[in-house]
Amino acid sequence: MQNFTFHNPTKIVFGKGQIAAIAQEIPADARVLVTYGAGSIKRNGVYGAVMAALPGRAVGAFGGIEPNPKYETLMRAVEKIRAEGWDYLLAVGGGSVLDGTKFIAAAVPFTGGDPWDIVAKGAEVKSAVPIGAVLTLPATGSESNAFAVISRESCGDKLAFSTPLVFPKFAVLDPEATFSLPPRQVANGVVDAFAHTLEQYLTFPAAAPLQDRFAEGILLTLIEVGPGTLADPTDYEARAAFMWTATLALNGLIGCGVPQDWVTHMIGHEITAMHGLDHAQTLAVVFPAVMDARRGPKRDKLLQYGERVWGIRSGSEDERIDAAIARTREFFSSLGVKTRFSEYGIGADVREKVAERFEKRGWRKLGERGDVGPKEASEILAYSL
Q1: Could you tell me which of 157, 253, 158, 264 has the C-alpha nearest to residue 203?
Q2: Beta bridge partners of 148
């Protein structure tokens, strides 16, 4: 197990009716701007609950943050905040709203030029507007981490950034706030959390048995409760288990001291930017392809994954790996998420296009072994069609 430092300052406020607790978490004199997406929080009562929790406070709102948050939209929020003096952000929504709000928080005080440089050039973020969160879609773990992914429509890019300054100060996780989610979003959330866990687990042995068991516990829980919470959205216990599991999948804990991959996500971001697929839809296609194409470097962990998560113990090593990949695809399919790009009408030319984008970005040393570049990305995509 490698040396590591674990720091997660986000306070989690979990459970039924906990939106009412947000007033205790936000300074009384703060000027709060609520950020949200397309407006479902107004239809399902969450927005009303948030406003009821902040009586007499200075509160404004900015809506319209997209499922893949666009730089152009976020900069309108930045301009609003600078002009009107809002000094605390409350993100109410899922991972995209949270990601977009993190960028807004970093961009408002940014003085290093175009705020797009934060994601495009890794420009240093020296300060950020404080953020709180009310989560309505379990999936990305963005409510308890320092990462965000942003798209820019004008250049077709989808890029990530990270800074400890955008950790949410607190996050309210009320499972009942997720009951009205469409099935597609719930299924995407299960896939997303599953893929986040695999990115930190399916690498190579690192003498980290506890981290492995943490990851396997998350995967087994998602397999157990994912289909159930999709079938019965108002089963509080199942939805609560899913919500907490999705947070733990990417709050930094299971990645402590172990190698991490993230090639699936990097490829998936390019596919979303080019073809507009949901983030989780790309993951459900690319991850099994990564398992297949990278079965050599990942052999030991693939065999462990097959045995401990899927109970696969018989057959040759390659047969067991084949079975583990098949079971993964079957699980994603059982949630209603497709696992081949051909099912989305995406052809073999995707291989060349993604390789070109990797080349453009200078990505040659990705993955847990630093051995994935344009050529390897193309080889992975051969298994995705």
Answers
A1: 264
A2: 161
- Residue 29 falls in which region: left (phi positive, over 0), alpha (psi -120 to 50) or beta: alpha
- Retrieve residue 74's tokens: 């976020």
- For each of the chain's 385 residues, which pLDDT tens digit applies? 888 888 899 999 999 999 999 999 999 999 999 999 998 999 999 999 999 999 999 999 999 999 999 999 999 999 999 999 999 999 999 999 999 999 999 999 999 889 999 999 999 999 999 999 999 999 999 999 999 999 998 888 999 999 999 999 999 999 999 999 999 999 999 999 999 999 999 999 999 999 999 999 999 999 999 999 999 999 999 999 999 999 999 999 999 999 999 999 999 999 999 999 999 999 999 999 999 999 999 999 999 999 999 999 999 999 999 999 999 999 999 999 999 999 999 999 999 999 999 999 999 999 999 999 999 999 999 999 9
Count, residues in the chain: 385
3-state secondary structure of 2: coil
Q: For residue 159, what are the β-bridge partners?
A: 150
Residue of 244, 154, 181, 172 whose CA lies nearest to 40: 181
Cα–Cα dist 325/288, whole Å:
6
- Output the CA–CA distances (angstroms, integers) from residue 14 to 28, 119, 177, 241, 261, in the order listed: 22, 31, 11, 11, 30
Q: What is the distance between the alpha carbons of residues 334 and 186, in angstroms, rounded to a whole number?
A: 13
**For the chain, where are the alpha helices, taking DSSP H only?**
22-25, 40-43, 46-52, 71-84, 95-107, 117-120, 183-201, 209-231, 236-249, 263-275, 279-293, 299-310, 317-334, 349-361, 374-381
With 0-12 / 13-18 / 19 or more C-beta atoms within 10 angstroms meaning exposed / middle / buried, residue 354 is buried
At 336, list the tokens. Answer: 């209603």
**Do the Cβ atoms of 201 and 305 come closer than 8 Å?**
yes
d(CA 355, CA 373): 8
